[in-house]
Amino acid sequence: MESFFSCCEVKNLSVDDVSEMMRIEQRAYAFPWTENVLKDCLQGAYLCRGLMLKGVLCAYAILSVAVGECHVLNICVSPDVQGQGVASDFLRKLLDEAVEWNAEIAFLEVRESNVAALALYSKLGFSEIGRRKAYYRNGDSREDALVLSLPLV
Ligand SMILES: CC(C)(COP(=O)(O)OP(=O)(O)OC[C@H]1O[C@@H](n2cnc3c(N)ncnc32)[C@H](O)[C@@H]1OP(=O)(O)O)[C@@H](O)C(=O)NCCC(=O)NCCS
Fold first, then answer.
1. What are the sequence ranges of the domains in the chain?
2. Strand pairing class (69-77; 105-111)
3. From CA 121, how far away is CA 91, in angstroms rounded?
4. Residue 21 contacts by C-beta under 8 Å, 6 or more apart in sequence?
5. What values do phi and psi take at 136, rounded to 5?
6. Whole-model pTM?
7. What residues pair up with 35 in beta bridges, in sequence order?
8. If pLDDT is split at 50, 70 and 90, which confidence band does 1 have?
9. What is the 35 CA–ligand 1 centroid distance (Å)?
10. Which of 46, 48, 54, 147 is most enclosed, with most CB atoms within 10 A?
11. C-alpha distances in angstroms, 6 versus 33, 81, 83?
12. CB-ligand 1 contact for 21 (6 Å cutoff)
């Protein structure tokens, strides 16, 4: 059977896509980014890629690639299509693209409570290299970020 990802198209995102991104962001995260943060990324020097199924955005990712390093800043899959390998296939493709831009290693931060994201990153071969104490807001308290990395070459 064809994978969900193979039925999709990858496109470069622009500020015109921010409303559609926000609709997914707000449903997928307990603590979503603001529209302004997304807009800043879309206008900056980042890889901002969307995954389209029949013209509808179903996932997006924002990566920064510079001086041999790739930083995965956001990857978000619409709750309607989670659990079908979308993020795995999409992130693999984007890390391949980062290698074409001379990235040798990828880094990211993830909430230690984000079981789905940790499963995704572990599946792709990321491993924990550190912890940022109280990095994320979590209601009235704070939550640690785990710092993960993956050699790309
Ligand atoms: C994290 C996220 C991107 C995963 O997207 P996805 O398309 O559902 O992921 P995949 O289907 O490719 O799954 C990847 C692996 O994670 C596992 N996984 C996915 N969701 C899971 C969950 N809720 N609990 C446990 N494992 C989970 C899958 O089983 C799969 O492993 P397997 O192939 O060995 O079974 C998605 O849940 C999401 O968008 N969450 C909100 C945004 C977010 O947290 N982004 C990451 C920020 S660091």
1. 5-151
2. parallel
3. 9
4. 13, 38, 50, 57, 60, 76
5. -110, 145
6. 0.98
7. none
8. confident
9. 23
10. 48
11. 28, 14, 15
12. no
